[in-house]
């Protein structure tokens, strides 16, 4: 019995034998963890895994390291007299920040506003705000804020927060020589698909970029120029596949949510759901085709909006939205 095994005291027997009572004898020490297992755990923490080692690998890290190896070979074998690369590579040599507003003229403001800011507004709004919130809402349902309306597709992070973040980092860093930045849905999809699952991965990426900028600021562009396009193509393809899959999933789920309260076995409901799915697919296809064909996101956005208003339920949705706003204004009086 358990009591007998425990010496008649009724206690649970120890998994290890007791230490010898003789003087000079050492107590039995539990075996140390396997060193290989410890190395795997360290690698998993470094790559910010969530699943056990072996089920997921940081493919993005592997692809990046492969690209660095090929870039190193390219730079080490490239001749110095053709001017293709800025060789030799050197540490430091580039300022971390410069004041970039001193030489800006009124003509520069005009050109930047008409040819930069205005065309960028649809792209930034759609890709860097709305799409990022929808993608985070779809990829991380466990992180949705219960206080927010899940039907708006921004329960993980709100569009307001993302807009403020994009605006602040451009207002603060562009005058100091930084390039305009935004939160792209492609970047989020690629990072998620290639292994990143936690916010620590973004912290790791930011720290790595800052270290590269400080110590290799004069030569990092040379290394990036030698980075093989084939590896970049693979990474972009993976990110595009993740975006396409998520977009189709959101499209189908939006139709399912619209008919969640209807009788699924009713033939009229099935017909209406099929028609709604067809309309959504046609509108999404028109938007994607125009963007890919013309290379202009705002053209695709306008085309998709027009198709939604004419072919889809955009007009009816707009009328209902106006009525809700009107009733809300009347009730607030």
In a nutshell, what does this entry contain?
The protein has 333 residues and is an all-alpha fold. Helix content is 62%, strand content 0%. Helix 4 (106-139) packs antiparallel against helix 5 (159-173) and helix 6 (185-193) packs across helix 9.
Task: Outline the structure in words.
The chain has 333 residues and is mainly alpha-helical. Among the domains are: 126 residues, no CATH class; 69 residues, no CATH class. It is 62% helix and 0% strand. It has twelve helices and no strands. Helix 4 crosses helix 9. The protein is globular and about 75 Å long. This is SLC26A/SulP transporter domain-containing protein. Keywords: Membrane, Transmembrane, Transmembrane helix. InterPro entries: MOT1/MOT2 (IPR031563). One of its GO terms (molecular function) is molybdate ion transmembrane transporter activity.
Give unreliable regions as ranges. Answer: 1-31, 45-55
Helix amount: 55-70%
Q: State the order of secondary-structure elements, H for helix, E for strand.
A: HHHHHHHHHHHH
Number of helices, where a helix is a run of at least 4 consecutive DSSP H or I residues: 12
Category by helix and strand content: mainly alpha
Mean residue pLDDT: 78
**Total beta strands:** 0
Range of strand content: under 5%
Radius of gyration: 29 Å
In one word, what is the shape? globular
Protein name: SLC26A/SulP transporter domain-containing protein
Biased composition (Gly residues): 1-10
GO molecular function: molybdate ion transmembrane transporter activity
Keywords: Membrane, Transmembrane, Transmembrane helix
């Amino acid at each position: 019995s358990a009591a007998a095994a425990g010496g008649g005291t009724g206690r649970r027997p120890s998994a290890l034998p007791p230490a010898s009572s003789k003087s000079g004898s050492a107590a039995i020490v539990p075996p140390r963890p396997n060193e290989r297992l410890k190395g795997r755990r360290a690698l998993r923490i470094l790559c910010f895994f969530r699943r056990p080692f072996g089920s997921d690998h940081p493919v993005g890290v592997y692809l990046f390291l492969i690209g660095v190896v090929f870039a190193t070979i390219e730079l080490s074998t490239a001749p110095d007299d053709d001017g293709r690369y800025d060789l030799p590579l050197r540490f430091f040599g580039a300022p971390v920040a410069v004041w970039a507003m001193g030489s800006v003229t009124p003509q520069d403001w005009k050109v930047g506003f008409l040819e930069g800011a205005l065309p960028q507004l649809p792209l930034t709004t759609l890709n860097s705000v709305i799409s990022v919130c929808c993608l985070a809402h779809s990829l991380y349902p466990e992180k949705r804020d219960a206080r927010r309306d899940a039907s708006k597709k921004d329960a993980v992070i709100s569009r307001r927060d993302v807009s403020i973040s994009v605006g602040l980092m451009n207002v603060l860093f562009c005058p100091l020589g930084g390039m305009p930045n935004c939160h792209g849905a492609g970047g989020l999809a690629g990072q998620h698909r290639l292994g990143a699952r936690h916010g620590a991965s973004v912290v790791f990426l930011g720290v790595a970029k800052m270290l590269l900028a400080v110590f290799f600021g004069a030569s990092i562009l040379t290394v990036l120029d030698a980075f093989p396009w084939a590896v970049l193509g693979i990474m972009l393809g993976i990110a595009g596949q993740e975006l396409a899959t998520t977009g189709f999933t959101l499209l189908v789920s939006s139709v399912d949510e619209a008919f969640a309260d209807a009788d699924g076995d009713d033939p009229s409901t099935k017909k209406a759901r099929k028609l709604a799915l067809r309309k959504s697919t046609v509108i999404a296809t028109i938007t994607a085709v125009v963007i890919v064909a013309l290379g202009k996101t705002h053209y695709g956005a306008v085309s998709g909006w027009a198709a939604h208003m004419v072919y889809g339920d955009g007009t009816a949705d707009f009328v209902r939205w106006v009525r809700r706003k009107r009733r809300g204004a009347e009730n607030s009086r």
